[in-house]
Protein 1
Amino acid sequence: MINDDLDGLDDHFSGVCIVGAGPVGISLAVELARLSVPVLLLESGGKKRDPEIQALSQADFSKADSHDDMTIAVARMLGGTSNFWGARCVIYDPVDFMPRPGLVDAKWPIEYQDVYKHYARACELADTGQLVYSAPIAGLETDDKSFSFDSLERWANEQKLQVTHRKILSESPLIDVRLHSAVTDIGLGDDGKVRDVEISRADGSGKRRLGVSTLVLTAGGLESTRLLLATRRKSPDLFGGPDGPLGRYYMGHVIGEIADMTLTSDRLDKAFDFFVHESGSYVRRRFVPSVETQLQEGILNTSLWPVVPPVADPRHQSSILSLVYLVMAYGPVGRLIVAEAIRRRHVSDKPQDVLKHVRNVLSGMPEAARHASNFLIRRYTGKERLPGLFVPNKSRRYGLSYHSEHSPDASSRVWLTDKTDALGLPRLEIDQRFPEADAQSVVKVHDLFEKWLHTTGFGTLEYRMPREDRVAGVMAQARHGTHQIGLIRMADNRREGVVDANLRSFDLDNLYVASAAVLPTSGQANPTLTAIALAVRLANHLAESRFATQAAVAA
């Protein structure tokens, strides 16, 4: 059931109360219902974005140019950030769970297999086909295994999870969704548990307290952290105290382009376009350094893939790319084509010569029209949803995009300010930092990749700046904010983390967190699918605990 208010809700909910109806919250609710556990899903927004409600997440930045705007990083509405994410679904790698002293200051309290066994169900919940993340290229092999070219990334067939799960959210007697229900306070009991939560509409009306038996925060990394920091203000020793791990080790990914690549193999060139895999969704191959290469060379986990040239620069003289730029430059339409964070990275703040783009389009109108038509058909008419744009060219020359691990750093953090939102909840200040060592790793990965391309004869690499400027070039592009990893670390003890291996708070027995914020490392993968897999794992744990308690009471 989806309700627009709190009418008819009792003073206490004995099932699992979930705060935040984004990708993880919806997935957790659906999985708990499948396991016969009643769920109350609280969402601060409605079915559509409301500027006043969205403004509740405004934050301050120590360095604004290193973090995405909060209108991109947070979405206060049903479906959360799945309303405008890129829908990329990638699994973590075994190396992300390995001890890497001197490279990554983090330790997982669980093994890779503890997460991996839930990825198949996570793929179902995200509607991204089967758990297939490798696709060899027929007829193309190499003895040099320093890098692989068969690693896949997948995309969800439906971008919005509230659409994917519309039927069960609307009809399940076990799921009670309450919109316009912002949680503004977590009440603590004397027994070391959460007693209740304060709920309010965005305008401050309808404020009330609701008793809870089990509380799970799934409000995204930043907003979940904000609620916990506000709770610690009332009880300063919670979550490791002021010097503890809560709000620290803030990570995203190090992304950008510092080089162009030319592929010598026609087979390899064709293999890196988006394609529908037999496992049930659009996929794309990436270049990834092997585990052995990463450990031997002391580099962070990184993926690389060819991309179209910068679309904002009309000097590419491509009618297709100029059409793409003109469409993306107009925000309301551009947001329908790509995720907003991606759109803003491609649409430069610098003034562009729109007339030159128009001339490019007019000079190749038939080709641009054919490509646009093909894109729209593949994007909107099939079961599988074309996630992006790749335009092969005769020269086989492309930009080389990197998506690299962001190493955990305790000084990369968020904290509460003295400012408050309209409901009285303190606002965040965000100081996301990118260590220069991470940029050095990106440059080293490129050097190793260039050597591999030469050894295999697969292609060549051409840097966009001299060697002495490459680290600075990576640092200049270091900006993120949509992945929100590490802020509520899972760990073996409360000195190193906020939640344990089962995502339960070390300090409050009935408080759990399911979010990318619990991940101790960022790896090269987008974190959403892993967060969903952990939500599946949590659902099983909560169901087992609930039924064990019921059995004990009955006995």
Protein 2
Amino acid sequence: MNRDFLKELLNTPSVSGHEEHIQEKALGFGRGFAQTQLTDPSGNAVSVVNPEAEHKILLCGHIDEIGFLVTYIDDSGRLRLMKDGGVSPKLYIGSPVQVIHDGRRVPGVVATCSDLLEKDKVKDTDLLVDIGASSKEEAEKLVSVGDPVCADTEVRELMNGLFTCRALDDKTGAFVVLEAAKLAAEKGAKMGIYAATTVGEETSGRGAYYAAARIKPDCCIAVDVTWASDAPGGDPGDTGEVKLSGGPVLCRATAVNKRMNALLEETAKELGIKLQYEVAAGHTGTDGDTVNRTLEGVPMALVSIPLRYMHSSVEVGSWRDLEECIELLAGFIVRLSQEMEKGFDFCTVRV
């Protein structure tokens, strides 16, 4: 598992709708194992193993992150913002941010004042970014309306094999699907493996739709993060008991294919990987939902990575969980390749 590659992804801004630069890095990593690669008008990047194979599995991990867009530059050179994705504006007061303009990073800070801190509900339109400009004209030399803005953080190692940064949601998932495809190829999997780092999940889900509609997979595994119940305020009674370093999280949901889940459980048992479980009634809130509704319907499973402090600039994850997710997915693909040759059926009801 290439930790340096994940750190590179996490340190590369990719606010939803502005994923071009990070996709270049994803494609660069994929060239190390893929026989071919695909891109599409939405901005997806797909690394493919065994492109001529009859049966295909789509692995989805979204590579976009939450952030803001610049809506206005005032006369003093400060920037007004609109949120892009599920942002909690209050978390950004007094925080360092970066504005991305034509691939260049412009540092700034979100202004703080007592009136703003005392507000019960802070809106995105309440925030002002100070880049040090003294006038609108000076600011416009560096930034433009429409530029993406995100927290200015870098990966930091914590105790007990944990690490923190912004955008573990879901660059860790994008990392896992690439590493899992690579490992499955090394293990000799015969089926077509389409490792897609998808775009736009935080805002529209368009990337997963484009990928599934084009690839037409037999099945899909979405890899995303999920709430860890061992964080302050976490309640295992909400959706399940999920702990960091506790292993991959398998979702039991109405949208999830039960036969895929059963095969994932068998694979985990064979590999000695302990699974955790979460429950979702109806939608899972991930790319898996989008893929599941594409074409005539695509059988889908959701494997999640435990995460603390989701949608903040200090998300916390576990290296061990990532390693086990990669091993689980690679083992599943090898096993599914064998089962597909025997006529594996995703249907749970038969005539």
Protein 3
Amino acid sequence: MATTTALPRKKIQSRNKVSQDIPDIPQRTRELFLYAISLFSLLTGFFFNSPKEILDGLLRIQLSPSVLLSDFMEIGNIGAAFVNSALMMLLYTRVAKRSGTLVSGPLMASLLTIGGFAFFGKNLYNSIPIVTGVFLHAKYRREPFGKFILPAFFGTAVGPIVSQISFGFVLPHTGSMILGIAAGLFAGFILPPLASQFIRFHQGYSLYNMGFTGGIVGMLFMSIMRAFALENNREVLLLKESSSYLMAYLLLLFSGMVLFGVSHDRNWPKRLLHLFKKPGQLVSDFTASDGFSVTVLNMGLLGFLSLGYLYLAGGTLNGPVFGGIFTVVGFGAFGKHVKNVIPVMAGVYLSNFVFHWEVSSISSLLAALFATNLAPIAGAYGILPGLLAGFIHMAVVMNVGDLHGGMNLYNNGFSGGFVAAILVPILDALNINKYTWEEDL
């Protein structure tokens, strides 16, 4: 994930009273917050299934081709999916700490995205080669791995490249696993320079920059595979019977976030309103500009908003929907807030009454959740452009998946990159007023 120029921290503090006296939440507390989410998921897993069932389910998850859409709650079981998510978050939180990376908004977004997609596509087997490939890139450049931690973590979007080559084709298992891991290492190695270039394509108005990058890399690998007459079996596997306890888990998680934010910052109403004024364009670290406590509060509110949309649309909870909600919540630390995501969600919702998709279908639900990667358009240009972005995204996302054959888990990020690249120049050319939050500082 590339970075863009941001205002100096001291300059923000000196000009903005709201940003002064932000409660100092120590790094240790921030780390414990991430560990707490992981442990909550781990314990929840054992509530659903026995240890033996979870181990058997985890094995099935690791051996799955993992292309879109592969619901690990169905492939393994609900408990195994929760444990897979917990193990992924625990591992990569530890990796971030060992690399010397501080807990910031971008890191929180990357870890919750990993935790969310560990319900439908990411696992230890297919993520480690990608992260290792980025690590090798850092070593080749003779730079600290911590500098590339975001491309490494977000880059696990192309994990299906590893799993599909290893287990998805009719190839000898030993040879295919070696080939799959090698492909993952190569994909990870080339991700950082590509991500830093592609952010210019959409100018930071798509928050899922690695989704666009992953789409290009996935398209490259899929093209090579198709040249060898190898095609993915993109069977959609979804949880057949949902559980009310899944909703209970999310309600407890988001309630805890809201309570944490409110209890750790007495000025949370004023600071939250200040956060809502930001457009969210990359790179917007809300923990730096508005504090860790209010950021966590914003994340919790986004979680409740996501559940509200799910209820309105008549959808059900499963692995992919869990992943979508987790990602929305994670980016509540890195560009999204209630004010800038609602127009985009509304645009997707309204598009269902024009197009031929059902609002409660899995494709429509995921589009609504993940289309919020275009929230900066609503934040910067206003409600109507945000509605338009969501509307167009719904049409585009249904047509780009075949390009990468499910090799990129962030398909909506791939679509969002195109939508932002198309809309932003047009909005600028029409002199649509661009809102700059620096004016409020």
Protein 4
Amino acid sequence: MARNKTKPLPKFASTKKLVEFFETHDLGDYWEAMPPADFEIHITKRTHLVSLDQKLVEQVSAIARAKHMSSKTLINKWLREKVSEQTRAS
């Protein structure tokens, strides 16, 4: 049996109401009625995996917690400082 035409998308008073609606309805039934999404993605950061000793990770994590920041933020801060020092010394 052929599928019927796309159902018209109801109007919603809030994003919450929209989410509630699609929790009980199939998005595929309204796909053609959805407005086109146009956006650009600019990836400016890359993730690099580096092996660290477990004890070092634990120490860095403890220091980061004490400073109320993530380990990632703390490590990036320290690396920037060290690279800056080395660059000035050269």
